[in-house]
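Hey, I was hoping to borrow your eyes for a little while. I've dropped the whole record in just underneath, so have a look:

——
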Amino acid sequence: MFLNSNEQTVRAWPCAVRRHSQVVEPWTEHVKTSTTTPWKRMVEIRKATPIAAFEDEYDKLEAIVGEARWILDLVDNFDGRGSPRYSEETFERAVAFVKLQWQEYLRLNGDSMPLPEIQPGPRGSIDVFWDHPGLNLLVNIPADARRPAEFSGDNQGERRFDGTLDPAQPNRGLVSWLSA
């Protein structure tokens, strides 16, 4: 018990007490084994999130990838402006980028990411485009694997951002933008 600022006697809340480098906790053994810190619990939930629970969404993502393969059938100068054909390598890097962001979104949010469109971009690049109520995001995967991907996002004019990213890495900022 202690006195508060009004000099009234108040019972102290149970808390961890440190004695000789040993923490004495007022919880029962059952509670100690079933509850951890909120951060550790969140990590455990994310690790335990079975990707199998999102098989239908992953199948939809695979369907989008399959439908976008028509891009590879385009020939040189298909648009009459000298555009090069789209390479399998560039397409696969775009697909790997989308799948990597999908997995990161699932890991961070425990839910399936909104699905993008995969479209032909300029000069042999591939565009990955999310157009959803309240936001849109365009990521351009360049034909040259040594160059970074460029992105541009907008949420109905309130906030606009653009920049570059490594398409071979999960991008927490991009994933956060998609979860907003």
Notes: The chain is about 35% helix and 20% strand. Helices lie at 29-34, 38-48, 55-68, 88-109, 172-179.
